[in-house]
Amino acid sequence: MNDDEEEQEWGSAVLGQMQICFLMVPTLANYSCLEEWKRILAMVLTCESAIQKHPEFFAEFLRVLKRQLERTDDVEGGLFDMSDEGAGVLRGLLKGFKRIVEQPGIGECEGVDDVREEFEEVEKWVKGQYGWELGDEFVRKGMLELEDGETVEMETGEMEGEDESGEYAPVIVEL
Q: Is the pTM here over 0.85, yes or no?
């Protein structure tokens, strides 16, 4: 097996498992497959070092994910709850993946631009369909003008759990 064949085969089992799990949910109402699908998403979308080694896999993974998300409403009532509460896992994974893909050193590898393009397609689709903002920029405090012209100062703690910078940054604790 040469390097091209090995590269092409890398990750194909994961993609196949993801596709089978997704199909089993509406076909057989097998919700344990939905949990497995979520675990596969978590595994792939948090795999930082492999993006540079296997960008073709990640680009294909994102194409498949977008196609699957487009099909979630084919089942009456939706395949699963995509509201803010129900889709927290997927939304969090996509936000984390966006941070990984936008890191300064990651774009130097060949093929990573394709991953970024595919992710932009997914991001555009979830924003249009569900109104999700996957960026880290959001307003916590500011002035708001009401309908009657009155201005009031508003502060929200709504997105605190989404922010992983400053005092909210993850900390490594050595035992």
A: no
| 16: confidence class by pLDDT, cuts 50, 70, 90 | very high
Three-state DSSP class for 143? Answer: strand
Give the Cα separation of 25 and 8 in Å (integer): 28
Measured CA to CA in angstroms, residue 23 lies from 14, 58, 67, 73, 88 at distances of 14, 20, 12, 13, 21
Rounded Cα gap, residues 135 and 118, in angstroms: 16
- In sequence order, what DSSP letters do the residues of 50-116 get, joined into one string? HHHH-HHHHHHHHHHHHHHHHTGGGSTT-SS--STTTTHHHHHHHHHHHHHHTSGGGGGSTTHHHHH
Contact 25, 33 (CB under 8 A): yes
